[in-house]
Structure formats: C-alpha cells, structure tokens
Amino acid sequence: MKKLFAKMEWILLFITLAPSILLYWLWEKIPHTIATHYNFYGEADDWNDKSLLLWLIPSMSVLLYLILLLVPIIDPKKRIESMGGKYFALRVVVLSLIAAISFIFILSSAYPNLDFRAGLFPILSIFLILMGNYLQAVKPNYFIGIRTPGP
Fold first, then answer.
1. Phi, psi values for residue 48, rounded to 5°
2. Domain ranges of the chain
3. pTM here?
4. Fewer C-beta within 10 Å: the chain N or C terminus?
C-alpha cells in the first residue's frame, strides 16, 4: 500500500513541478516585461518584470500541493482519510488546474501572439464539469464539500 501511495505522490509531484520545468525551458523566449493582468475583454492592463514568474509559478504550485497533502493530517474527525481515492482524485484535478493555468500563462508570455483565452476557457469548463461530478460524492467535512441548512 505504501508503494502505491509513493507512486501516486510522484504523479502529483510531477504535475506540481511541470510548470516550473516549462518556465525554465522557455525562459529565454519570455520578454523582459510580461502581462500580468487582463481586463474583461482579454486585453493586458498590467505589466511586470518576468522575474515575477520565478517565484510565483513554483511557490503557488508547491504551496497548494503541501496544503492538499497536509489537510488529511489536520482533519479532526479523519473523514478525508476515509474518502480514499476520491481525495486523491480531487488533488489531481486541483493541481492539474493550477498547472494548466500556469502553462497557459507561461506560453502566452513566451509567445505573445498566443491568445490565453483560447486555452483558459476550455480548461475551466473541464474543471467545473469534473468538480461538479466529484462534489456530489463527497461527504461533508471540515475542508471539502458544501454545507446546506437542514430541516
């Protein structure tokens, strides 16, 4: 069981670190100043130095990975541990979303002619579909699920 857990963690670590690897690979193609905010129409309206990517992309991915890794440990009623594979699936989906958004951001920075919206909307749609199907199977707990008032 521990071997299987270790293999599954390697998958999550790869998903977590993949955007940083892509950033390293495309670093020379990224211009010195990059768009960091877009308005409703998809036009860039804020710019920053590309060095922002050096800490933003890795720290966001690694921090989320660590939070999702530690949530079962701090769960007081240990309900997340009883979810088994469902919680791992949630981690894969959430970390994949962050990785995909990071990929789009890095690629649109390296290739300015690439429209980030062309990739962002399908990825968000797939994420919402997966989470919609997944959340109905999650039992309410301290961290995951939607609580609605009962009778």
1. -145, 170
2. 2-135
3. 0.81
4. C
Q: Which residue ranges of the chain lie beneath pLDDT 50?
A: 1
| Radius of gyration of the CA atoms of the chain, in A | 18
Q: Could you give the CA distance from residue 6 to residue 122 in angstroms, rounded to a whole number? A: 31
Q: Which two tokens stand for residue 87?
A: 């919680």
Which phi and psi angles does 30 have, rounded to 5°? Answer: -80, 125
- Record the tokens describing residue 112, joined without a space: 């300015």
Instruction: Please tell me what DSSP assigns to residue 140.
Output: P
Express each pLDDT in 32-71 by its tens digit: 998 888 888 878 888 899 998 889 999 999 999 999 888 8
Residues 125, 147 contacting (CB under 8 angstroms): no
Do you know the residue count of the chain?
Answer: 151
CA distance 111 to 30: 7
Task: Dig out the tokens for 49 from the structure.
Answer: 């130095």
**With contact defined as beta carbons under 8 Å apart, do 109 and 53 qualify?**
yes
